[in-house]
Amino acid sequence: MTPQYALEANELIVNRGGRRILDVPSFQATSGEVLAVIGPNGSGKTTLIQCLALLLNPDSGIISYNDHRISGGRSALHQRRRLAVVFQEPLLLRGTVHDNVSLGLRLRGFSHEEITSRVNRWLERFGIAGLANRQAATLSGGEAQRASLARAFALEPDVMFLDEPFAALDAPTRQSLTGELSQVLRETRTTTVMVTHNRNEALALGDRVAVLMEGQIRQTGTPQSVFTYPADEAVAAFVGVENILQGTVIAQNGGVAVVSIAGGRNIDAVSDLVEGQPAAVCLRPEDITLTAYEKNAAWTSARNRLPCRVVGLSPGGAQTRVHLDCGTGLVALITTRSCQELGLIPGKEVTASFKATSVHLIPRR
Amino acid sequence: MELILEGIVQGFWLLVRGDPEVWQVVFLSLAVSVSATAISLCVGVPTGAGLALNRFPGRQVIVSLINTGMGAPPVVVGLIVTIFLWRNGPLGILHLLYTPSAMVIAQCVISLPIIIGFTMATVQQIDSKLRLQIIALGASRAQMVWLLLKETHLPLLAAVMAGFGAVISEVGASMMVGGNIEGQTRVLTTATVMETGKGNFGLAIALGAILMVLVYLVNFFLTYVQQRGRVR
């Protein structure tokens, strides 16, 4: 019988200096999936990955691989040899690239032929075959991280752990490596647990996303569901929902809730929350469209149209963040080109439109 | 001035002609100090690595004892070893006093803390993340220690040289436990002390010069390692 989970952890608790820094009642990774654990700095991501990779003993908890519970000592070493970890820094040892990439295999006592064939395959795969005989200390950051990835993949592990593998790289290198890694993961179907504070990496690589905050997993689901339907306001803020407005449902019309927010505005949202329910209105800035203000606005499919005044602009390359005042603060993210076409300047009147399906309501107590 | 000059000339000729007495002393010095360093190395490196990588109750006490040992006066070491090896001392039955073996033991006591201390400092200096990476690569405990030591081979060599430098140049302990017996336990330092006392400056200078060369080589190497570490 194939085990249900490649990796399972239960009642995982880590305390540090009298403070509970990790408290995960249940955590699973299914065979072949890429699970991205996202969370802000200091949320316990690294602690979680180190516990799962058997590098850190939790204060309490049970970790199982393929339904086998791992206890300490030899069984941990035996299991650790079926895992691989890539850290934020490449952490190469003295010697050539080949020495480094072959190290894990040598520690496991593989035959010379097997080592050579695997090392060459993975050096090739990560585009550093030409660097095999270079001293590791002379590599650039990107090359070194490629060597580190090749070293981990050469082990052909049951479960791969990636601890912010690209956080120390410059943007172009990060982008190309993310693409290559994504391809390798799809091809090899390696069960992978990666942690990152970068939402785009999680979206690009994760089959499933878990949000870790203050040592607890707040939400788990497909990237789509977590990014569109965050479970609470903190998760919403972390996954890029910049507009979180407090309001109360004042009507419910067949799956569309009307929410009254500050400034006397009403917002339609697809939601089954009932009348009288206080709710947080979540709206991503990129879901807002801006048009020039007209008293009798032209027909649009968007149910929500709010007249607003531009308060400020934060240009960010191809896209510009527009800060609006519509009785309450609102942030929209539009292309810099349309910003120019609309001639947006502080004080200008515009209409902000967004669909009822773009609005996610989180009920509040 | 004449005295010094004459001494240097005499010393030079003693060395060039290959005076058998001088070379015997040199040979015994090297034999004793190399053995002592080698033994300290075998015991000290694993001990130092163990102390660097483990936390246990009483560790602090042991570490401060080792730090004290790194600066222990050879005379005191000589005294303690002598007491132990004395005819009716705890190890008197071994009849080791006034033999080269006794000198090796005393020099081990001097160099061991130095090698443990250096090893500990070196291993502790290694980025703890690198240690984690080595474990994550599937290293057993022994494999990890081996890889860490390989990673720090130059500073470790420095530890060995420091240990050797300390024992080749010490006189107090060798004098006390060896007794400076001609042809048996006479080494460079004890011979230099004796020849100087007798007024044989030529011989004393020859012995001193050899000692200086040995110590210079050790320090040259230590400096090389230190500077290399800085440039990288």
Explain this structure.
The complex is a heterodimer of chains A (365) and B (232). Chain A has 365 residues and is α+β, with helices and mostly antiparallel strands. Helix content of chain A is 26%, strand content 36%. Chain A is globular, with a radius of gyration of 25 Å. Chain B is 80% helix and 0% strand. Chain B has helices spanning 2-17, 20-53, 59-70, 74-85, 100-125, 128-136, 141-151, 153-168, 172-178, 188-198, 201-231. The model of chain B has no long low-confidence stretch (mean pLDDT 88). Classes of the chains: A alpha+beta (365), B mainly alpha (232). Chain A binds chain B through residues 50, 53, 55, 77, 80-81, 83-85, 87, 89, 91, 93-94, 103-104, 107-108, 137, 151, 155, 161, and chain B through 127, 129-130, 132-140, 143, 147, 150-151, 232.
Write the topology of this structure.
The complex is a heterodimer of chains A (365) and B (232).
Chain A lengths: L6 E10 L2 E11 L4 E5 L6 H8 L7 E6 L2 E2 L4 H7 L2 E4 L10 H11 L4 H14 L15 H13 L5 E5 L7 H18 L2 E6 L2 H7 L2 E6 L2 E6 L1 H6 L4 H6 L4 E11 L2 E6 L3 E6 L7 E6 L5 E4 L11 E13 L2 E7 L3 E7 H6 L7 E6 L5 E4 L2
Parallel strand pairs in A: 3-8, 3-9, 6-7, 7-8
Antiparallel strand pairs in A: 1-2, 1-4, 4-5, 9-10, 11-12, 11-14, 12-13, 14-20, 15-19, 16-17, 16-19, 17-18
Helix pairs in contact in A: 3-4, 3-5, 4-5
Chain B lengths: L1 H16 L2 H34 L5 H12 L3 H12 L14 H26 L2 H9 L4 H11 L1 H16 L3 H7 L9 H11 L2 H31 L1
- Quick one: how many beta strands of chain B? 0
> What's the overall average pLDDT of chain B, rounded?
88
Q: Profile the largest sheet of chain B.
A: none
Q: Helical amount among residues of chain A, as a percent range?
A: 25-40%
User: What is the tally of helical segments of chain A?
Assistant: 10
- % residues in beta strands of chain B: under 5%
Q: What characterizes the major β-sheet of chain A?
A: 6 strands, mixed
Kindly report the oligomeric state of this protein: heterodimer
The overall strand count of chain A is 20
Q: How do the strands line up in the largest sheet of chain A?
A: 6-7-8-3-9-10
Work out the radius of gyration of chain B: 20 Å
Structural class of chain B: mainly alpha
Continuous helix count of chain B: 11
Distance between the ends of chain B: 46 Å
SSE pattern of chain B, N- to C-terminal: HHHHHHHHHHH
Run of helices and strands of chain A: EEEHEEHEHHHEHEHEEHHEEEEEEEEHEE
Low-pLDDT runs of chain A: none
Shape of chain B: globular
